[in-house]
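Q: what sequence does this backbone want?
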């Protein structure tokens, strides 16, 4: 395996960028790619050249910069090699403010800083050092006495130069991102589901590729952090649309739980779209049907938990009203009792499962929260004018005897 092949393999495997810095052009490109603020004064061509000149065979330099960004520099076959950037921890907004206070006169919007570091993988420095040693060993450069030098730039002050040209292009991009967020919020506020999802996809791609066109370094930890920011944007839009705070908190909290349990970035991205769709449907119902906060909350609870045992008394307790008041308000606004509305939700779900799955009628009945199959058949026939078996046949779904 050649050195470039080894670097590419390591990058694909770990998502930690690996760059060969064999000449002035590569070094200048490296600096232009990763310098976010002048306080990172080691990321200028002259400073980087000086740092690399002090590399020697058998030495690994671990650099931590003032913004908490990490790099590994070493030499392989007399070619300077950089692994990074990477981060060793996730930061909250409060952590960012504390970091900036420690840097004295640094003035930097937290949102800009978090957007800058969000593509970088989060790994312990010992892991990256171990990967560096493995890479060098597999290139035939392994040795037992690698010297690791920690170079901490966090105590360096801001450079005297007040030049802000480095920041100007990125600031323009941040402005564009804020505009994209406003479009997303506006379409959510109006309940425009398809437009809002398209806005989110644009925003997602924009943030992912602003700093790194290949999306290198985007980890599931980054995705979870991004999801928390997106939820905040969506919650603000829902609040402007008049969604009650308790319902807003409930929807957001359930989504946060799904994100925490997600095992892939794809699952997290799908949850974004599901959450946007759910909010837009609730907002659409509020705008077009005139549902009050109480009825919106009741409908949401039934649509989310239809597979569970739901009684009017339990629903009323959940919403902190009396059963009689809930029934009266629900009928006045929807034209149905809560029990009838729940049955309609369940039958709609049952119809989809009958037409799109191979579940038996008994299994479908259980999955929509009705344990008595005979009662399920009765309700289904009342809603659709035919039995579940006949409905399934008409939809073109046929099974062997005894399986459906």
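A:
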């Amino acid at each position: 395996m050649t050195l470039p092949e080894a670097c590419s393999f390591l990058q694909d495997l770990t998502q930690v960028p690996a760059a060969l810095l064999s000449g002035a052009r590569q070094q200048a490109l490296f600096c232009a790619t990763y310098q976010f603020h002048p306080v990172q004064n080691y990321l200028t061509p002259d400073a980087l050249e000086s740092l690399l000149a002090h590399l020697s065979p058998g030495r690994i330099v671990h650099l931590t910069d003032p913004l908490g960004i990490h790099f590994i520099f070493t030499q392989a076959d007399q070619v300077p090699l950089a692994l990074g950037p990477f981060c060793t921890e996730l930061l909250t907004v409060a952590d960012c403010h504390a970091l900036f206070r420690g840097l004295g006169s640094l003035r930097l919007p937290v949102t800009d800083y978090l957007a800058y570091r969000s593509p970088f993988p989060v790994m312990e420095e010992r892991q990256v050092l171990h990967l560096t040693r493995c890479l060098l060993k597999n290139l035939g450069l392994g040795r037992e006495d690698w010297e690791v030098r920690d170079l901490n730039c966090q105590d360096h002050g801001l450079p005297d130069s007040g030049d802000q040209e480095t920041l100007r292009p990125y600031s323009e991009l941040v402005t564009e991102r804020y505009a994209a967020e406003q479009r997303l919020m506006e379409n959510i506020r109006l309940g425009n589901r398809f437009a809002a999802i398209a806005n989110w996809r644009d925003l997602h791609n924009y943030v992912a590729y602003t700093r790194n066109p290949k999306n290198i370094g985007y980890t599931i930890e980054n995705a979870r952090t991004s999801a928390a920011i997106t939820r905040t944007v969506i919650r603000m839009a829902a609040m402007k649309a008049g969604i009650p705070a308790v319902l807003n908190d409930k929807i957001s909290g359930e989504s946060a739980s799904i994100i925490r349990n997600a095992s892939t970035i794809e699952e997290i991205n799908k949850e974004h779209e599901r959450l946007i769709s759910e909010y837009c449907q609730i907002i659409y119902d509020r705008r077009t049907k005139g549902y009050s906060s109480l009825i919106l909350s009741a409908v949401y609870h039934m649509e989310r938990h239809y597979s569970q045992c739901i009684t009017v008394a339990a629903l009323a307790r959940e919403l902190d009203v009396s059963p009689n008041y809930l029934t009266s308000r629900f009928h006045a606004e929807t034209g149905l009792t809560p029990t009838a509305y729940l049955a309609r939700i369940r039958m709609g779900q049952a119809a989809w499962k009958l037409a799109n799955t191979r579940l038996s009628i008994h299994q479908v009945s259980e999955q929509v929260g009705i344990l008595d199959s005979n009662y399920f058949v009765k309700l289904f026939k009342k809603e659709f004018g035919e039995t579940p078996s006949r409905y399934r046949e008409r939809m073109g779904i046929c099974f062997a005897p005894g399986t459906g």
